[in-house]
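Please, structure for the following, as tokens.
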Amino acid sequence: MKAIRVHGYGGVEVLNYEEVPKPEPGEGQVRVKLEAVGVNFIDIYHRIGRYQGSLPLTLGQEGGGVVDAVGANVPEIKPGDRVVYAGVQGSYAEYAIVPASSLVPIPQGVDLKTATAVTLQGITAHYLALSTYPLKQGDTALVHAAGGGAGGLLVQIAKLCG
């Protein structure tokens, strides 16, 4: 399979598009054939070494696709399921190994690319509006950068909260 990997920290020149072995899921894991991946600012931090992992590493923290293999002790997910995830390193690839507990099924009628695009920003907007400070009718929320992904969703959630 193809993947975008980093063997040393630095600028865009350290990105390598290379052939790597197709991974196999272990216990509690699922292999996802990726159809959409998120490209986020945190990926730059991994590439430049601000957040250091073991090298070489495959960039990318979120993805969406179809389950094509399931490891042992994963009864609730099966091949063919459409899923998304965030917070798991390695989505700049054709396939990713993801803990089954990190997967979110995509509801019928929701486009896979849309589900993938909204996952990380949606989680961020949700916890800001409903966990960090639960917005309620009559509150005022100031949203900086409301034109971005998380900000745009945060405005929508704030409006729904009143």
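Strands lie at 2-6, 15-19, 29-37, 57-58, 62-70, 82-86, 95-99, 104-105. The chain has a mean pLDDT of 94.
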